[in-house]
């Protein structure tokens, strides 16, 4: 068997009769994800019917019920996220770290935990010293490894999010990252950092300026990203929808937006700055979480291996926007009134 087949077999190797002792955040995150997918499926059906001039009363009612349940689950997810060991850190960035977004980010990390056989080399030494193995119904011995314990280095967490250099989709190959995790981190960057005045946004702009100056010092140029795609036969750019494959004028296959030698598109530069900022946040989350759990924390790889070129370490607590976490306000869960009405109607029907 090749490495991929061995990895797939290991992932399917599970104990018999032992539940996954995930945290409450991971439990509610898993249900929040399922409710969101269910709501989207119903919304897609309703939108297609609307385009055809048709209606589905049952689907519309189902949409209301699923939305009420989803709001309830999201509310519970936020409540447990506020009790997370890292909450004292990220709550000091109230604008950048929105509650529901942080609940899903922490849920991804905690949900990464899994069972390993007692003698599996993938079980970290710290986990063996902190936790006793358990016996399943078949008499086999297993060790539970938490998500943050599996991420023994910050790079492994970044790899799980698909943020390492060279990670991209390949046709016919299984991805080694979590697309949903990458998506929620994009939401954190887009709607939390870039929309608010916070220290992570300052770091984003500083890195973007530094990267642009570094490109220009080596003789490169940063140019605006072209709006269209290039046609090799017409020798012209065509502004077409994103999924268009052929030139509307001559029918020739359109080329990609490839950067000429010595040129970096502005959009490419912006994506590099976003990716760097998200990786910085993940590194800080990794440090704070492992310190809260009493796990070992190592220096960043660049600082550890190349101290002459990278000698700066950004402390996670220096990124806090306020000195103390703001007091918790009483939160009203959207859809709570509808949910209570559903329960009351169910009780009356049972009577």
Provide an overview of this structure.
This protein is mainly α and 351 residues long. The chain has three domains: 22-113 and 148-168 and 175-223 and 263-326, no CATH class; 114-147, no CATH class; 225-261, no CATH class. Helices cover 50% and strands 7% of the residues. It contains 13 helices and seven strands. The chain has helices at residues 3-12, 24-51, 57-81, 87-90, 99-110, 125-130, 147-150, 154-160, 179-193, 199-217, 266-292, 301-305, 336-350; strands at residues 114-117, 134-135, 141-145, 221-223, 229-231, 236-238, 263-265. Strands 1-3-2 form a three-stranded antiparallel sheet. A hairpin with a 5-residue loop joins strand 2 and strand 3. Helix 8 (154-160) packs across helix 11. The termini are far apart.
């Amino acid at each position: 068997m090749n490495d991929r087949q061995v990895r797939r077999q290991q992932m399917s190797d599970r104990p018999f009769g032992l539940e996954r002792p995930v945290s409450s955040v991971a439990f509610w995150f898993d249900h929040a994800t399922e409710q969101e997918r269910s709501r989207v499926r119903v919304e897609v059906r309703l939108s297609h019917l609307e385009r055809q001039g048709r209606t589905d009363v049952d689907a519309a009612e189902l949409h209301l019920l699923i939305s009420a349940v989803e709001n309830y689950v999201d509310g519970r997810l936020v409540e447990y996220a506020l009790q997370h060991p890292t909450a004292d850190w990220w709550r000091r960035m109230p604008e950048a770290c929105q509650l529901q977004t942080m609940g899903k980010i922490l849920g991804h990390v905690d949900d990464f935990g899994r069972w390993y056989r007692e003698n599996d080399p993938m079980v970290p030494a710290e986990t063996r010293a902190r936790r006793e193995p358990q016996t399943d119904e078949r008499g086999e011995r297993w060790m539970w490894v938490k998500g943050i314990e599996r991420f023994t280095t910050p790079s492994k967490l970044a790899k799980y999010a698909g943020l390492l250099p060279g990670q991209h989709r390949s046709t016919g190959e299984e991805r080694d990252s979590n697309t949903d995790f990458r998506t929620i981190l994009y939401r954190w960057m887009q709607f939390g950092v870039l929309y608010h005045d916070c220290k992570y946004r300052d770091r984003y702009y500083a890195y973007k300026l530094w990267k642009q100056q570094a490109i220009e010092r080596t003789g490169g140029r940063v140019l605006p990203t072209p709006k269209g795609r290039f046609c090799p036969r017409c020798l012209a750019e065509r502004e077409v929808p994103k999924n268009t494959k052929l030139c509307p004028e001559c029918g020739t296959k359109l080329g990609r937006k490839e950067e000429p030698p010595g040129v970096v598109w502005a959009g490419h530069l912006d994506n590099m700055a976003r990716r760097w900022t998200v990786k910085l946040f993940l590194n800080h989350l990794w440090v704070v979480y492992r310190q809260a759990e009493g796990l070992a924390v190592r220096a960043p790889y660049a600082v550890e291996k190349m101290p002459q070129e990278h000698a700066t370490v950004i402390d996670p607590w220096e990124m806090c926007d306020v000195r103390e976490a703001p007091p918790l306000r009483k939160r009203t869960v959207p859809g709570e009134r509808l949910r209570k009405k559903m329960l009351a109607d169910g009780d009356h029907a049972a009577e």
